[in-house]
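Quick illustration, no need to memorize.
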Amino acid sequence: MRRLLLAFAGFAVALGTAHAQQVGKVGVDWLGNDIVVEAVKDPKVDGVTCHVSYFDRGVIDRLQKGNWFENPSDSSISCQQTGPISIGDIDLSRGGEEIFNQGISLIWKQRVVNRIYDKANDTLIYLSHSRQVQDGSAKMSITTVPLFGQPVTWKNGKPQ
């Protein structure tokens, strides 16, 4: 299962999205279930790091409950300034831009992070959610990085 997830992560990197680095792992029970914390750097915004946490089911839990090839859709995200902010060629549309995706099932289900620029409030919004082929998912988490009142470099000039 871990090899398959790594393959999906490699595919995501090839598509130009960020990759995650595991920075923490907390065991939550004797079944081998864990909460994993990963750091994700925005590939087009230097100086912003997001930390995404999610539940990783253990083998015993998978055997007991079935649904062997899937993790829950729940995740949490927090993004902060971790250095000087320099913004590259980002998507300024209302839908924003996917900066990270990770497979959480054998084939179709993915954990995704999108970046949206809120021009009126000069803020970057990061939305963590899951993408499923059917039935969607309302499980999401949101965080913001305000740009107001600090030096920010826009490589293509600040949007007007």
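The CA atoms of residues 47 and 82 lie 5 Å apart.
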